[in-house]
Amino acid sequence: HKGLIVDYIGIKRAMDKALAQYSKVDNENIEDINASVTVVLDTLSLLDAEFNQFDQTPYFSKVPSQQIQCLKEAAEFMLKSVAKKNGFMNMVKRLKLAYDVCVGSDQLNQGQRDKIHFYFAVRSYLFKLIKGDAPDTAQMNARVKQLIAEALKSDGVEEIVKMGAKQGSFDLFDKDYLEKLKKVKLPHTKVELLKKLLNQAISETGKTNRAKSIDFSKRFEALVKRYNERKEDTKLISNVLEEFSVHIIELYEQLCEKGIPGISTEEQAFYDILASLATKYDFTYPSEKLISLSSEVKEVVDDKAKYTDWSQRDDIKAGLKADLIILLHRWGYPPVSRDEVYQEIFKQAENYKKHHVS
To answer: How many CA atoms lie within 13 A of 156 on its CB side?
Structure first.
């Protein structure tokens, strides 16, 4: 009546597998390990074939500077083709899943283990360049992790790779980052880092100016689409990469340009909305009047947004719409769809307030 029954049924199988994997004490589940070894060896063979035109020997030289340079050049080698890069990432992911099971097997020699860690390192480095973090570093040894960290630092772009991470804060519009990227010698790596910089900058802009962010996102997507449609075997690939880098830098610099002097960030966002609608519907509206109108739009929005739940209350939203219609009519803003103007202004105001920008 006062006791506790602890049932260990089912635990033996898991223990047997762990012991067979790491201590080789029991061979009850050795079939799984053998199958995993087969997958590891087959995948290594496929990866070696992918890298048959690449010299990996510097990585195994044990000279840190050579290892770091080889790691960066291996990533560059994979970035030459989207299909090649994606295929490589998937193969190494499969390699890791199999290696996790047979990591303690004596069927794998040291040379094969070194190769496995090389491919892990290349994938992790690529992942950090493209995404900013690597989810599959648990199986890497400390030396490989250190090499990846040093490879990132050596180009002076560690801050770019960390962009979007929760820890630390970076000024995405600091021109120093752009100057660092311009010095990166590996063209495909440079392109990936520039894409990351611009994408993060657009995302950050979206917190204060939704219309501007959407505009630049569309322009960026169109630019990337043209780049991705290039022929992988073109003899002018270096020119294509350089041209793409120049276009990204131009787009980034345009995004960094200051707005209209004398108006607030929020007023600039409303100005951009009204100006874009004027362009969309092909009518002319004096810039001076648009600046003043944007200022009054902000006053109307602030009056309604002073309530905590303003964006959820139908009565406040109806009042905001009515006030905006009266305001636009008073300023003679052309009779485009009033509902469209309201919707764009409401989305901008809601987005702006959500990010608590002062």
So the answer is: 10
